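Q: Could you fold this chain for me?
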Amino acid sequence: MVTKGWLLHSVVAMVLIIEVFSQDCGQFLTRLRQANKANLELLNSKMNSTIPQQCIEDVFSFSLKNKLPSNLDVSEAENAKVAIQEVLQQTGHIFRQNCTEMLWDEDFLRAFHAGLDQQSENLKSCLSASPRSQRIQLTRLRVKRYFRSLNDFLKEKEYNRCAWEIIQIQVKQCFLWIENLIPMIRNEEREGRLVGILSFTSN
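A: Sure. Below is the predicted structure, expressed as structure tokens.
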């Protein structure tokens, strides 16, 4: 059984580990995946095992209309990193809203914020593409639009319990998306390094 103390220790430990490895971007992707799993475990531990009856209609209605954009261009590792970094950053922002109805205690929220902030900043330091690149800017804009819809929904529902149930479901989907994206980034970068080595040795 996963206990509150174990989860809190796990999240805090991942913050420290990621900080130590922040200078090694290859190693950081491995640590990011571990931290993302810790984020998922924490989120799962705080979510209801079933959707409250009074929230079911809102959950299905919102989920059909609002999803992380499927047209995000994550075919290249650099753009995928940008998308993940923006998701982490925006998730941190949204969980700093009025969380009274979410029933998270302060220790969990602080650990969650610290982890997201550290992951976002370290991933940002691993980006090599120009922030002014049109593709990079478009990726950030699409992620921001998605999270703006979450923020607008929270405000519209006055940060009530059902609204936070929906936000947690949406954020969980984002973390699952990140989980699937990290191996793709690692594989592409590994192939890129191999091509570089082969090009060098053939000269």
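A (continued): The radius of gyration is 18 Å.
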